[in-house]
Amino acid sequence: MSSQTFRSLHQGPGLLLLPNAWDGVSARLIESLGAKAIATTSAGVAWSNGYPDGNALPEDSLVAAIREIARVIRVPLSVDIEAGYSDDSDAVARLVARILAVGVVGINIEDGTAATDLLCKKIAAIRDRAAQSGFDLFINARTDVCLRGIASGEAAIEEVIRRCSRYREAGCDGLFVPGLVAADAMATISKAIAPMPLNIMVVPNLPSMDTLQKSGVRRLSAGSSLAQAALGRTSQLVSGFLAGTMGEMFEGSANYGAVNGLFNGNAD
User: Fold this and answer.
1) What CA–CA distance (Å, rounded) separates 232 from 236?
2) Is the model's pLDDT at 121 over the cut of 90?
């Protein structure tokens, strides 16, 4: 699927709803349910490979996981690369080149608690590397001002806007602000960064879809919530099984044949 298709999805109509997958089967299932694009959850990918979230996943494991996801879907795929797994901007750019080679059209890359200058250098290096390789890559810059409580109230809004200005100059295409929940703050930020699309993440007590759109939000990500829900349900079922309860395993379970059928034609 082309990068231009992915870019156009940010322009509407409606919100771009991005469910976050963590492996081939979750991605293929999400696609089969009608998602127009898929993102990965760094937490889910890390957990499914036996690592904690937080830049601990080996690059080879990330690339292998993304390759398997890209192999079984046809809709645009955006990959969460956390902070790039390195403070060396050239090393981050090389990693992005590796995942671009398997069919990715977008990435998320975050600042975390690091200095703004560091993410600017990474974005610029990624943009240069993608251009040299002939790829039209959508770079979604994530700022953790709200998620990590780096600032609050009006100061948080001002800091998000300030960082976005820096990241846009470096070459990003969109701004991701996880932890942002107030509609008025969304409206202020979306207006300040326009026409760059504002991306937020699903959290409890988020405003309605209609309110999000009216507040200028263009992209809504599920984040790690789907992976957490799946693991939470698995935990309940395993606890019941170990206690001698088996019936709940068959309540709402996916049909074996239907799941197997998701991969017909994808055995290459």
Assistant:
1) 6
2) yes
